[in-house]
């Protein structure tokens, strides 16, 4: 369809309230999903998208971005193409454009969070998916998709959940560093852990974690959620430590991890790419920890470690 005809038909079909929706795509260069997500997120920001969603389909990375209808579509398209002409976005293609009937923006993107089975025991779901609450053999983790990291749909969170579900024992104490939504410690508690300590440097994440605690019907008395920077000033011993963050903060914590683990305790690290795994493992071994299991999903990698002998 010619661009001018598309615009004319789109305008003729307008209702009183709607959003402009534009989809972009780019190849997964070398399988580097993280870099592609960064590029597409930048486009959404530069073009003033009100909401966006990134997904993989047919071996490509896609961005679906939505814009206010108060601006003329041809003006929006001109702005978008201006950015796509820049060298940084040379691999990005404008795939299609269309009109979306208006829905409240604080809930529209939640439709992108269908129930997701993770590992052998868990199912992660938004709280409004009632059917997901009755799947035999699966423990339901309700997560309210918002601003904090950890909805369960990112590969790094799935890695951490899978490594976690295999080891949680009744009464365990878990420390969740960089807790985000709280999905990891909530999963541990619902699998039988007795107490959760969660820390995050972002105060907004603390509020979201508490909201998800309530959504999952967890007794708040077994949770300690506070603002904290990694393991700084942490003096307790725990059975399990989880850290689904990035390479640099994961590495910076390693010298202190051994001292906060109980005998036979486990440390789970995620949030790193397969390319970064070799560097992390070399530092981990020097910190008195030994890898028990590694797990890769897509371009993302994580591991579960224990205290090394000797």
Task: List the keywords.
310 residues, alpha/beta, Alpha-Beta Plaits, Rossmann fold, 2 domains
Low-confidence stretches: 1-16, 103-110
- Alpha-carbon Rg, integer: 22 Å
Mean pLDDT over all positions: 82
CATH class of the largest domain: Alpha Beta
Largest sheet: 7 strands, mixed
**Number of domains in the coordinates?**
2
Spatial sequence of strands, sheet with the most strands: 10-9-8-11-12-14-13
Task: Estimate the helix proportion, in percent.
Answer: 25-40%
Q: Helices and strands: which structural class?
A: alpha/beta
CATH architecture heading of the largest domain: 3-Layer(aba) Sandwich
The ordered H/E elements are HEHEEHEEEEHEHEHEEHEHEE
Q: How many strand segments?
A: 14
By CATH, the topology of the largest domain is Rossmann fold
């Amino acid at each position: 369809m010619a661009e001018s005809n598309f615009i004319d038909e789109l305008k003729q079909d307008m209702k009183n309230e709607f959003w402009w929706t534009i989809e972009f795509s780019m190849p997964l260069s070398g399988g580097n999903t993280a870099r592609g997500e960064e590029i597409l997120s930048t486009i959404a920001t530069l073009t003033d998208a009100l909401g966006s969603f990134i997904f993989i389909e047919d071996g490509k990375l896609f961005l679906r971005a939505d814009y206010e209808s108060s601006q003329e579509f041809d003006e929006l398209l001109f702005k978008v193409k201006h950015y796509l002409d820049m060298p940084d976005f040379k691999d990005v293609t404008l795939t299609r454009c269309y009109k979306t009937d208006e829905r409240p923006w604080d809930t529209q993107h939640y439709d992108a969070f269908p129930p997701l089975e993770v590992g052998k025991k868990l199912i992660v779901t938004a709280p409004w998916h009632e059917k997901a609450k009755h799947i035999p053999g699966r423990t339901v983790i309700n997560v309210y998709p918002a601003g904090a990291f950890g909805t369960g749909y990112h590969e790094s969170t799935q890695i951490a959940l899978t490594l976690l579900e295999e080891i949680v024992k009744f009464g365990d104490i878990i420390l969740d560093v960089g807790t985000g939504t709280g999905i990891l410690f909530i999963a541990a508690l619902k699998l039988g852990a007795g107490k959760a300590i969660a820390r995050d440097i972002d105060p907004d994440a603390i509020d979201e974690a508490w909201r998800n605690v309530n959504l999952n019907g967890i007794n708040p008395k077994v949770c300690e959620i506070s603002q904290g920077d990694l393991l700084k000033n942490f003096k307790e011993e725990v059975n399990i430590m989880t850290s689904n963050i990035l390479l640099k903060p994961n590495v910076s914590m390693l010298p202190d991890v051994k001292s906060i683990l109980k005998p036979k305790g486990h440390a789970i690290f995620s949030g790193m790419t397969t390319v970064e795994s070799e560097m992390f493992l070399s530092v981990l071994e020097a910190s008195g920890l030994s890898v028990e299991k590694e797990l890769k999903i897509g371009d993302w990698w994580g591991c579960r470690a224990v205290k090394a002998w000797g």
